[in-house]
């Protein structure tokens, strides 16, 4: 029997019990292997540079250097994004600021620590495949945030959209609204391959490291 392709994971949390628990849960999955652990953001960056895991499962709130700092440093070092490591953030706090900051920094997903084992494993698989992985609670907050009002877009964020074609803007708007590639293809009456090409170009032109980051950028800049 052909074994499933292994997803290597780096678990980052300052609490030993949680770090060990997450590692045991993920290591019990046939297609997931915990390659290493770290206890804060600074160690996470160094271990990630050495191990190059497919996915980091990382807490946001940690002493010394937190998860948001680590995301920024990973991005600066070119360790985060398509073809490199993906970051899945874990926290007990489902606050809007944490969600936006993490996704804008390049996180592929955001889960609360009370998520089920199944949700955690599914999120790791989604992140490894390059998809967004958001808990229902977080997804609802992002949607509600868009309905209630956007952050004032910065000149820098607006400039990131400058090179997009009108069709790429249309695709980005649908990514923001949570549509899958297949749903976007149906909506725009184009092939799935065409949508994938548009999404790839949107990420490249805007400098976004994940679909989730592009969705937040669109929420803050597009009507």
TrEMBL record:
InterPro entries: CheY-like_superfamily, NreC/VraR/RcsB-like_REC, Sig_transdc_resp-reg_C-effctor, Sig_transdc_resp-reg_receiver, Tscrpt_reg_LuxR_C, WalR-like
Domain Response regulatory: 8-128
All copies of domain HTH luxR-type, residue ranges: 157-222
Lineage, opening ranks: Bacteria, Bacillati, Actinomycetota, Actinomycetes, Kitasatosporales
GO molecular function term, any single one: DNA binding
Protein keywords: DNA-binding, Phosphoprotein, Transcription, Transcription regulation
Pfam families: GerE, Response_reg
Protein name from the UniProt record: DNA-binding response regulator
TM annotation in the entry: none
Gene3D superfamilies: 3.40.50.2300
Position of the signal peptide: none
UniProt GO BP: phosphorelay signal transduction system; regulation of DNA-templated transcription
SMART domains in UniProt: HTH_LUXR (SM00421), REC (SM00448)
Location of 4-aspartylphosphate modifications: 59
């Amino acid at each position: 029997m052909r074994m499933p392709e292994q997803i290597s994971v780096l678990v980052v949390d300052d609490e030993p019990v949680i770090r060990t628990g997450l590692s045991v849960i993920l290591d019990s999955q046939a297609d997931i292997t915990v390659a290493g652990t770290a206890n804060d953001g600074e160690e996470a960056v160094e271990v990630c540079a050495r191990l190059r895991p497919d996915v980091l499962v990382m807490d946001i709130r940690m002493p010394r250097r937190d998860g948001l700092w680590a995301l920024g440093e990973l991005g600066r070092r070119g360790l985060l994004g398509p073809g490199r490591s993906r970051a899945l953030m874990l926290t007990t706090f489902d606050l809007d600021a944490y969600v936006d900051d993490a996704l804008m920094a390049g996180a592929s997903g955001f889960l609360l620590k009370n998520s089920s084992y199944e949700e955690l494993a599914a999120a790791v698989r989604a992140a490894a495949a390059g998809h967004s992985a958001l808990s229902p609670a977080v997804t609802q907050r992002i949607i509600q945030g868009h309905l209630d009002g956007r952050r004032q877009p910065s000149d820098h964020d607006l400039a990131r959209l400058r090179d997009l074609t009108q069709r790429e803007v249309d695709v980005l708007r649908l990514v923001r609204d949570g549509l899958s590639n297949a749903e976007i293809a149906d909506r725009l009456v184009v092939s799935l391959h065409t949508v994938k090409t548009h999404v790839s170009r949107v990420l490249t032109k805007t400098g976004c490291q994940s679909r989730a980051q592009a969705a937040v950028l669109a929420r803050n800049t597009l009507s």
